[in-house]
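Hi everyone, sorry if this is the wrong subforum. Our group has a chain we'd like a structural model of before ordering constructs, and none of us has done structure prediction before. Sequence below.
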Amino acid sequence: MEDNEKKYDNKYLLERQLEMIKIFYERKLLTKEQYEFEVQTLTTKIKTEDKKDF
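Answer:
Right subforum, don't worry. Here is the predicted structure as tokens:
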């Protein structure tokens, strides 16, 4: 891996996605229902180290 490349884990990517949809909601680009749906979808679909399936 080169110096300027970074490896992102799922937890980091989830946090970034959640921040982005929060911004959309705050700017009235999403309704409350859409925002809640997206949060639920992201948190259930993206696997982080905190949530492991055994």
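For your construct planning: The two ends are 31 Å apart (CA to CA). The helical segments are 10-26, 32-45.
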